[in-house]
Amino acid sequence: MEQNLINAELPAADAAIIDTAIETIKSKTNFSISLTPEEKSGLVKMGNVFRQPVLISINVLAEHPEIMPGTFDIAQFKKDYNLALALQPISQKLHVLLQAIDDTIMAAESDSVAAMLEVYGEVKTHKDRIPGLSAIYDEMKSFFPRKKAMKQPAPAAQ
Known about the structure:
Layout: H1 12-28, H2 37-41, H3 51-63, H4 74-126, H5 133-141
């Protein structure tokens, strides 16, 4: 094979362990929610701009809770902030892992297609010499439709 970007296997036992780990993550984050794109666009985002003011606000409320009306839930404010802080490193690690898995899938699929093209070439070469290959060639070539050549317009009369 001319291309071999990845050389690995995932045994079924390891896949089962990974699946269990994912289920554990899901059960430990069972509070997670899903937002629609419209809901996301309507939210105020913390980003880097508001990170420091949020922290200042928490510190101010720790020393002066009396400045807020009784309807303001200081404990919930801290809880939301602490949840975001706790989930951020987990999210970053999962994003890195997911990107690596996606890249590995892409490489493995590319290796598979490149190998298939080599096999197809050999089937095409040997289809008339080895019994049974002609039918396989006919099946495989259906995945490679040939483009019809466009007719060249006749030269304009001068």
